[in-house]
Design a protein that fits this description.
By secondary structure, the chain is an all-alpha fold. It contains five helices and no strands. The protein is elongated and about 65 Å long. About 0% of the residues are buried.
Length: about 100
Amino acid sequence: MVTDLGIELGVALDILHRKKSAAHATENRSKLRLHILTISAFLLGGIIGVKLYQAIAGYLLIIAAVLLWHCPQRSSPRAWRSEGNRNAPSSSASQQGT
């Protein structure tokens, strides 16, 4: 992402020095904004993650485990058994042709 930001900054400098037409300015401005927002979001997320980990330390692992435990697992064999084999692949369908 930082490389893309550098490329777009180079294009912006070319537009400012009139090496490229001003028609590219609007597209370049929107790409620059997108790259800056993306990099800022990653940076902010990293800072918030570090601060959150410092605040709750080892409990973060427990919180993540509890959240994942409660996520539905519709495609797992365990879910097939608990739903009465409604979604389980039928072995009898493949045996009906024989």
